[in-house]
Design a protein that fits this description.
heterodimer, A: alpha+beta, Ribosomal Protein L14, 5-stranded mixed beta sheet, about 20% helix, B: about 230 residues, alpha+beta, Beta Polymerase, domain 2
Chain lengths: ~150, ~230
């Protein structure tokens, strides 16, 4: 009886330790699509997005309530030493059922007034952007293929 | 489609008959004359449509054969439906067609003195919209006025559960966009239009010049395909 009680206390202790470990470490692969400091791929034909630079473009701010960016959200990128707004058009994280999942975090550069910086997009763009709330018609108009 | 048209004709004839029973012979004559007139009007309307269609094609700055024939094909298939709509329109006298069709949109754009109107019929395999319209304006204010007027007319005519339409790009002066389910209209200034060349993209899909200018993606020299990355 005493031994059994002791064993229960020990297992509870180990459970608390493992919980603490999980709380401290970042097991957050599936919780975030695009957030601050993610490296993204610019998919339009703008000169800013396509000229090589020694640092890949990174997200420095996500314009959502939580800091997580999904398809259709605006983000602020740091590209070639300057700040530029962009629109997320695909991410590696699986989203809703029957929405495409991409192998790279794709982004289209956008001006402050919403006009796209580039003039063509070769990469497939999710057609679900059309049903979403937001000004995506301009990006859809310069897209070549829809997924 | 045929059944619908026939039912429409039946309903309209029944309504007319009921009205005839109530009233005297004079209105009967007028209704018969009206019927004859409306057929003629329908024919006139269709010929007018043809005329402006040709006109719109010529006005389109990018004169591609594909652009014209696509529209021509689209037109031919829709002609019998449109005629039925037209006859119904005229028969109802004061009430106009309740459906915000492409014709209504084009006529109101022409009424607003739109510059370089270009209508492109989008092929079915691109499931974006049925018609892609690009319009130029004289000034940003002109573009805004056209967009607002189009939405006003749409709101007046929409009765059948179509969601509201908003102007995208309100804060951009040179490019505004309105997406009515089946049609998408882009209001741009001539300079912006030349930069983006949307008509070229939407008529020649993959053979577009700007797309061809984009250099093909090449893998970096030190790229190693690691299969384990995909199985994570």
């Amino acid at each position: 009886m005493k031994v059994f009680h002791g064993f229960q206390k020990l297992s509870k202790f180990w459970r608390q330790i493992t919980d603490l470990i999980f709380y401290l470490s970042s097991v957050s692969i599936a919780t975030a699509a695009i957030q601050k400091m993610t490296r993204v791929r610019v998919v339009d034909n703008s000169s800013l997005g396509n000229t090589p630079y020694h640092r890949p473009p990174r997200v420095i701010h996500v314009y959502t309530k939580n800091g997580i960016g999904k398809v259709g959200d605006k983000v602020l990128l740091a590209i070639k030493g300057q700040k530029k707004k962009a629109l997320i058009v695909g991410h590696k994280m699986p989203g809703d059922r029957m929405t495409p999942r991409f192998d790279s975090n794709n982004v289209v550069l956008i001006e402050d007034n919403g006009n796209p910086t580039g003039t063509r997009i070769k990469v497939p763009i999710p057609s679900s952007l059309r049903q979403m709330e937001g000004n995506y018609s301009k990006v859809l108009a310069i897209a070549n293929t829809f997924v | 489609m045929n059944i619908l048209c026939r039912s429409r004709i039946l309903v309209s004839s029944v309504c007319r008959k009921s009205s005839l029973i109530d009233q005297s012979a004079v209105p009967r004559c007028t209704s018969l004359i009206f019927k004859a007139r409306c057929h003629r009007l329908a024919v006139n309307l269709s010929s007018c449509q043809q005329r402006w269609r040709y006109g719109a094609c010529l006005k389109c700055p990018f004169e591609s054969k594909r652009c014209y024939t696509d529209r021509g094909e689209g037109r031919l298939t829709e002609r019998p439906e449109k005629l039925e709509d037209e006859t119904e329109e005229v028969e109802d006298n004061r009430r106009f067609s309740e459906v915000f069709t492409l014709d209504v949109l084009i006529s109101l754009l022409r009424q607003e003195n739109a510059v370089d109107l270009c209508v492109i019929k989008v092929p079915d395999h691109i499931q974006y919209a049925d018609y892609f319209i690009v319009v130029s304006g004289v000034s940003p204010r002109h573009l805004r006025a056209m967009a607002l007027y189009a939405i006003k007319v749409f709101k007046f005519m929409r009765n059948h559960g179509e969601p509201h339409v908003k102007i995208e790009g309100k804060d951009a002066e040179d490019w505004m966009c309105v997406d009515f389910g089946k049609m998408v209209v882009h209001f741009m200034l001539p300079e912006t239009r030349e930069v983006y060349e949307l008509e070229k993209l939407w008529t020649l899909r993959t053979y577009d010049e700007q797309l061809k200018k984009i250099p093909a993606e090449t893998l970096p020299e030190d790229f190693i395909f690691d299969a384990s990355e995909f199985t994570k």
